[in-house]
Each structure stands twice: as C-alpha cells, then as structure tokens.
Design brief:
The protein is an alpha+beta fold. The chain has two domains: 89 residues, no CATH class; 292 residues, Nuclear Transport Factor 2, Chain: A. The protein is built from six helices and 16 strands. The two termini are 30 Å apart. 39% of the residues are buried.
C-alpha cells in the first residue's frame, strides 16, 4: 500500500532527523525498482508506505538531497544516527519511558494516525496473530477506549505490555498490546483483540472490567525472584494445563485467582448474583487455581504450543506469556479426579491464541489474567521464531 494513512503527517525518519526535514533513502530492500529511475538533480521527494510485512519503507532518489539534509541536520541527531550505524550502545528506556510508549501508541491509535509514532526502520506488527501493515486492522476501526486493566514493563529487554478495553463503533472488546522498543523506536507491536461472537470461549462484560489490585503492586526487593525463576513458574503453569490430569507442575498461592476475557475462572471474588455484571460464568470459577487443576478439569487441552515469555517485570513480579492452546477434539467424554463424567466443551479441532499475564508473589502464582481468541487449528506464530 503506497501513501500515508489518511490525515497523517509525514512519518518520522529512522535516522532521527525531524519530521519536516528531508533525507533520501535508497537502501531499503523493499524499494520498488522503478522508484530509482530518476534523473540526477531531480527534486528529492520523501514517500513512505507500510508494506505487507509491516515494515516501514522509505525511499527517495536524489543523492544531492541526501547531502543537503545531512548538512542541515542538528549535529547531535546526526551524531546519534552515525553512532547507531556503527553499533553504539542502545538508548536505555526505564519504566516511565516504556509506559510513555504505551501512552503514545494508544493516542495514535485513537487518532488513527500511525505516522505519529517513532517506528524503527523495520517493524513487525500483528493483530490477532496475523502480520499486517502498520495502520491496518484496529487502526482503521477504533472509535474509543474503555477501562485500562494493567501494565507491565521490562527495561532489560525493552518490552512493555498493556491490557484494557477498546471500542469499535459502540462495540467494546478486550484488548492486549505488547511493544518492543529498540533505541527509542518501536520495532515490534503485537495486539490481540477479543471481539464478542468470534469463536467459543468465555467473554465477560468489557463495561464492567476493573483492574485486579494485586497486579499493580510492587514486590519488595527482598522478596523478588530472578527472572529465570519467574519464567519457570509460568511455564510450569502451562505444563499443568496441558493434558491436565490432576498433577501440578508449578507453585500456586492458596488464594490464586484467574480471569479470562473478563470472566473469573478461578477464585471469583464477587458474591455472584443475577444482577452482578461480573457474575462468574465458569463452573469452576469459585474454587482456586490449584483446586481446579487437581480435578483435571482441563483434560481436553492437548498442547500448550509455541510458548514464549517476552516480558518479565521483576519489580512487580509479572510475566507475560504468549502461545496457543490446541484442542484435537479427540475426547467424547472425560472424567475428573472426583469421579464426575463431563462433556468436553470442544469436540472438533480448535486452537486458542493467547497473551497471559502472571502475578507471582513469594515464588507462587497469585493471579493469571488472560486474553485469548480462536484461531485456525494449529495456526503458526509469527513471533515464536524471534527467540522468545
């Protein structure tokens, strides 16, 4: 797709030169060959488009304009660009910095103007596990936002996450976002939007979504666990869920709770009444995480596939996980450890794609906040091969 999104200003150039300054680039691998056929000395025109791989491509063709732009660029910015090309240390981004990128992203999303953001030269953007050009999908349909649920930041890896609610023309949906920041620019943007009616699974009331207080609490420094241990506990959760037969492969807090797509599926804190907008919809939502797993209630979850843990917030004890839950549909009936026979909710091949945030306190899982959607059975991940 050529051209900028409707109403957008020219995109910030990747070398740090200001929005209104001009510099020519001819080194992008996805530059259309015919765009290079310009006469020497022709005016330098800067264009950009978002290609099908979601990378920002910039191209122009006048070498003279390159020299002009560099000559008039502020020396500090030019030096930063040269340092980056020579492999200088990346710019540090702490929690406040990472949270500011979330704020910028949400503001640009609401304005439907992706060009507001500082994108890296090569960007990977996905919506609901599909790689898209930046500016497509929710960028074109959003009309507002609802409650914010939670945030997490990992300054060590430059990752930040956000869970909340978005509005599309009066219809609210659950929303999860993960960004990766490299040298002050967005290099990855992963989003999941759970829209009502787009497949089986729980769907709560986005209007009633409220943050779980424990998720935003800091863990005292002397009670924190190293990131490797936090990841191990989250991974053990998925080992417990996969082919769930009652065995436990992680550590749960006695009051461990879980909420999935706005529905409490373990330790529902609400009293439960027909008038309660948070009324639990899960048969096992009134018992703890560990009690539900010991029953083997999720025997029909065949494989927890393509697991990755891109973000660890050690200060708050949070781990963000991504992956798939595959259901082969092989079971006609299954029996929980209490002897009760059940019909599995899914009797044909099916997969969920998820982003899930774990809160870990004192080496035990205290809460799991999950957002997942239905995708084609065994759908591959565009992120799994990225190394996390």
């Amino acid at each position: 797709m050529n051209g900028k999104p409707h109403g957008a200003d020219p995109l910030r150039l990747p070398d740090g030169i200001g929005l209104r300054q001009i510099k020519c680039h001819t080194m992008q691998s996805n530059v259309p060959p015919n765009s290079l056929k310009k006469k020497e000395g022709a005016p330098c025109k800067v264009s950009h488009f978002f290609d099908p791989l979601g990378r920002v491509a910039l191209w122009t063709i006048s070498a003279a304009a390159v020299l002009l732009a560099v000559s008039f660029a502020p020396q500090g910015k030019a030096h930063a660009a040269n340092s980056a090309q020579m492999g200088a240390m990346p710019v540090a981004c702490d929690r406040a910095c990472l949270y500011s990128f979330v704020d910028q992203y949400i503001a640009a999303l609401l304005a439907k103007d992706a060009a507001r953001l500082p994108w890296a030269a090569h960007v990977k953007f996905t919506e609901n596990n599909v790689e898209l050009p930046v500016g497509w999908g929710l960028w074109r349909t959003i009309s507002g936002r609802g409650a914010e649920n939670l945030r997490a930041a990992d300054p060590q890896t430059g990752q930040v996450a956000y869970f909340g609610v978005i509005d599309e023309r009066g219809t609210k949906s659950f929303f999860a976002l993960r960004l990766k920041i490299d040298d002050g620019k967005i290099s990855e943007a992963e989003t999941i939007i759970d829209r009502k009616g787009y497949g089986p699974g729980p769907f709560g009331n986005p209007e009633a979504l409220q943050p779980v207080p424990v998720m935003s609490e800091d863990v005292p420094a002397d009670r924190r666990r190293p990131r490797e241990r936090l990841i191990s506990l989250a991974d053990g959760y998925f080992n417990t869920l996969e082919l769930n037969d009652g065995q436990i492969f992680t550590q749960f807090a006695p009051d461990c709770s879980r909420r999935e797509n706005g529905v409490w599926t373990a330790n529902d804190p609400h009293p439960g009444s027909n008038a309660d907008p948070n009324l639990n919809l899960s048969a096992y939502g009134k018992i703890s995480c560990e009690a539900g797993f010991k029953l083997g209630n999720y025997r029909w979850d065949d494989e927890l596939r393509a697991r990755r843990f891109p973000l660890v917030d050690e200060e708050k004890g949070l781990v963000l996980a991504g992956g798939f839950i595959d259901h082969s549909g092989r079971l006609d009936k299954f029996t929980t450890t209490d002897g009760v026979v059940h019909d599995p909710p899914l009797k044909s091949p099916h997969s969920f794609c998820y982003l899930e945030m774990f809160k870990i306190q004192d080496g035990r899982i205290r809460h799991a906040e999950s957002l997942f959607i239905t995708v084609p059975y065994r759908m591959p991940s565009p992120w799994y091969q990225r190394g996390y």
